[in-house]
User: Fold these one by one.
Assistant:
Number 1:
Amino acid sequence: MTAPMTGQARQIWVDADACPKVIKDILFRAAERARIRLILVANKMLHVPPSPWLAAVQVPGGFDVADRHIVEQLQPGDLVVTADIPLAAAVIDKGGHALNPRGEFYSQENIRELLSMRDFMAGLREGGVQTGGPAAISHHDRQNFANRLDSFLVKWDHGA
């Protein structure tokens, strides 16, 4: 599909390469219900259900290409769904909102600490310490994400 036109109402952007399918499904239903444009950005072709509210943008492969595309297209007030903390920091700096797939919002108050922790863990991994990856998305995480997204969309709909 094509990229969204500029000047549109608020949109939801998804850093889709690593976004769990169950979270995408929640997003598809929410975008349809709320009639909000949802754009998945990835470096591979993605399937989205046929809908005027859903789109997928394929960007070239490469480090942070999808992230850069999202930040370049993002308008203040847009929502980005990502587990990528540096992308979330860029979104916040540009006046957007960032939500991770576990239903936790990134904010001016927590993003610097999260970046520091990310860098600390990366240093441990580079030093050979096995830190493991994040746990799989649980039922509680899915429910938390859906609830936080719904609450956000209600506030958004009322101009907050």
Number 2:
Amino acid sequence: MVDVNVLAYLLIPGKSTGSTEHLLQSDSHWAAPRLWQSELRNVLANDVRSNLLEVADAALLFQRAKDLIAADEYEVETSDVLRLSKLSKCCAYDSEYIALA
């Protein structure tokens, strides 16, 4: 399983890109809840609004992520997310990843 921040570090060149490339080489089976798409769109939209990325480049990065994750994205049970959120005090977004794990 992979958090969307790890995907962003992999796709958007920066100080953590090398580490995430190494992580992908050591374990290329990355899965995520379907929520990852909206979360990554938000990260990319922030970079577009800040003029760090062009819209076309951000769309290409999103497609790269989709190619990497699409076969391993999953729905999670709402009741599991809510229960885990209550137990952990984490937000529902983070609890989706916990539920998938």
Number 3:
Amino acid sequence: MPRPPHANRDLQAAPDGISRRRFLSASAGLLAAWGGLRGAAGVRRAAAVEPRFLLAWGEPGDKPGQFRANVGIALDKEGNVYTAEFRNQRVQKFSPDGKPLAHFPVQPHAGGLAVDAEGNVFVAHWNSHKIAVYSPAGERLREWGAKGTGDGEFQLPGSVAIGPDGLVYVPDQGNSRVQKFTRAGKFVGKWGSLGSEPGQFGGGQAPGGRFAGPQFVAFDRDGNVYTTDAALDRVQKFTHEGKLLAHWGSESSEPGGFGPPPVDKNGNPIMGGPIGIAVDSQNRVWVSATNHKVQLFENDGTFLCGVGGEGTEPGRFDRPHGIVVDSNDLLYVADTMNGRIQKFAVA
């Protein structure tokens, strides 16, 4: 079976039998430590925005409420939580407190997903090189894309997002670009190329590779577009037309950096870096990374605070992928290789 786009290790089970008091106590200690970290010059603490663990749900498995490589996460207009699973080939829907509401099968290799105002679910099918749209009941409504480099074609589209302009943005990883479409799938525009210069993606990777381009995208209130680039350990900020506005990041393990990379079962480093991205109501930028962290930045790249570290305790992760922030500034994290979702208050 193909591996998820950014994962290289079998799922780990979350610990059983942890009391709520112990769970919250462990979380509070971890988050306090993260909030007090200071790194290199320019890294500063913002105690008022330290994430506060609220709850977690899920465990590895294929039953409702369980996950295998839950890569994508999104919200509908009611605040319900949707996930897409790379290995279980399905979408699940939950209430904000983790109650299972629905699930339906999707085509293979589901990555990131988005939900429009009508409740239709857009899924990036990574190895299938296409975007598919499903009704709220799970009926496949339409799809577009095929493997290639032309307009409207893809190589390993890792995720999908609907911008404030109503257009569908697709990080076309293997083609080192972002493409834009109407919700009906009509091509509108694109930007990006393979390279290491600001505005490019995936420098040092072979053309068509899974780390050769942007991973996820998100939008601020002004309609600007933020992208993650795992190969270059950076976030880039663009206008909706693709004009570069800012970029930041490093492979450092200090706060604000996206390293070190994870290791395989033999202890050898594997490709990693920033993956998921979300923007909250204050235009602050949340970024997940394969270094088992979720970090918060000002939209100019100034580091604020973070949460994480490898593990199964509350507030720890195993290669988190998709993240999303709701209208109440509640942060949901797809804790991908732990097979669960974690929820934090970040206001």
Number 4:
Amino acid sequence: MREQHYLDKFNPQYNILKIAGSSLGFKQSEETKLKISKALKGIYIGDKSALFGRFHTEETKKIMSLSKAGENNPLYGKIHSEYSKKLMSQRALNRKHSREIKDKMSKTHGNPVTIYEKCSSKGFEVIGSFVSARRAAKFLGISGSTVIKYMQSKAIFKDRYKFSSK
């Protein structure tokens, strides 16, 4: 209270802040922001992170997703410029994923496929299960679209192979 009294009474020119004990209205310079950012880089990562070891429940994830849907999405109604589209395309083309990430993407977005081979005595036997049609196709040396086409039509490929989703 005493500090605020003197700020009000003398209205000093050198004091940027007008409310005692508050930084309301104060703007850090870009140089200061960079210094603070550099000083804090790498400090709050891994086990030092406030969220380390914590996980959102499926319900919380759904609520967070819905809160950013439609008009609440920061990009709602905005259109990327041609320059931005070109830049995103170039970055995507130059992106390299590790084998682990590729496997994870296949499991998430791929079409799981089981390949059956025709045996004369027993009918069809499983010869492999794959996380994606592309992986199954690579195994047989054919294209992924061929695998998907035969899987959807339930036809037998070359009178030898049958494909099904897991």
